[in-house]
Amino acid sequence: MKCAWIGLGVMGYPMAGHLATAKHELTVYNRTRAKADQWVKAHGGRAVATPREAAAGADIVFSCVGNDNDLRAVTLGADGAFAGMKKGALYVDHSTVSANVARELGKTAQAAGFGFLDAPVSGGQAGAEKGILTVMVGGDEKAFATAQPVMAHFGRAVTLMGPVGAGQLTKMVNQITIVGLVQTLAEGLNFAMHAGLDAKKVIEVISKGAAQSWQLENRGPTMVDDKFNFGFATDWMRKDLQICIDEARRNGALLPITAIIEQYYGKVQEKGYGRMDSSALMKLLTEK
Ligand code: NAP
Fold first, then answer.
1. Residue 65 Cα, ligand 1 centroid: separation in angstroms?
2. What CATH topology corresponds to 169-286?
3. Where are the domains of the chain?
4. What angle do CA 47, 48, 54 make, to 5 degrees?
5. Which residues line ligand 1 (CB under 6 A)?
6. Which residue of 79, 185, 216, 272 lies most exposed, with the fewest beta carbons within 10 A?
């Protein structure tokens, strides 16, 4: 297929790479041009100067940028991708943003005669590089059927969750369920060190029992080593939790622990650790 990719960051760069490996024809756009040139050097295809040029003539346009405003910046306006979309084409957004912006863009796309899917991902940088992401999709079945085989090049589990916005809502549940775990993991490991235990041995033992989790096995040892350079940034996690809290205000769900941890991430940012991965909650316990 003729594909376009907008946003070649930590996630977008390898995700777009999988499409090139699968022999799709790629046109890429990145705000910082050097990254787009580097991608083309590695994978072929061509780099262009605006999202609009990237979208022109494409069957499917993908994006993976930062927050709501970043997504609006690459989709709307004279140079935005939507201005270049052909009728009957499809726009698939892999950024983690609010369900509201997804619905807003979904309506704009429908009025202009092309499809829209919100398709946030989980699995981090390693998942993107290995092509084994979980992709949570919102949109209609026809659009999903077109995009699913293409997304399968970087997604191990690609699932339609409901109408536009449902992908983002599912990603919110993902983030809510992760952060409480990361905080108690930090507390448990810090407790183990204070108790004079070998924290790595503790991880080894308890990961065979009821405390087992992806975070324990993958982030536990790196937290003990005081290493926080493993992908998903604190800045992104705080943005995601703010999206969850806003949505909960609208739907009436209570998020007592999530709201506290959102503030903890604010404290991690105040320490200057916003680019550290989201297990840096540990720093609030180990550095007073
Ligand atoms: P990143 O490395 O910071 O990359 C962000 C990309 O978006 C870059 O290509 C950046 O361009 C572009 N961008 C940002 N704002 C823009 C704007 N206003 N106009 C044009 N381009 C803009 O971020 P990432 O880690 O790939 O994350 C991307 C999205 O995936 C975020 O929504 C994040 O929450 C989500 N996500 C990330 C992970 C993870 O582990 N990293 C996991 C799941 C979901 P420049 O190169 O010019 O800065």
1. 4
2. N-(1-d-carboxylethyl)-l-norvaline Dehydrogenase; domain 2 (1.10.1040)
3. 2-162, 169-286
4. 100
5. 7-12, 30-32, 35, 64-66, 70, 73-74, 95-96, 121-122, 124-125, 231-232, 236
6. 272
Question: Could you read off the pLDDT of 212-230 as tens digits, one per residue?
Answer: 999 999 999 999 999 998 7
pLDDT at 203: 98
Q: 28 near 54, Cβ under 8 Å?
A: yes
Q: Are 180 and 187 in contact (CB under 8 A)?
A: no
Read off the pLDDT of residues 245-264 as tens digits, 9 standing for 90 and up. Answer: 999 999 999 999 999 999 99
DSSP 189: H
Pairing of β 60-63 and β 2-6: parallel
Q: What CATH number matches the domain at 2-162, 3.40.50.720, 3.30.70.120, 3.30.2130.10, 3.30.1330.10?
A: 3.40.50.720
* Cα–Cα distance, 100 to 68 (Å, whole number): 9
Cα–Cα distances in angstroms (integers) from residue 268 to residues 96, 116, 236, 247, in the given order: 21, 35, 12, 23
- The token pair at 6 is 């907008």
Cα(195)–Cα(108) distance, integer angstroms: 57
H/E element holding 133? strand 133-138
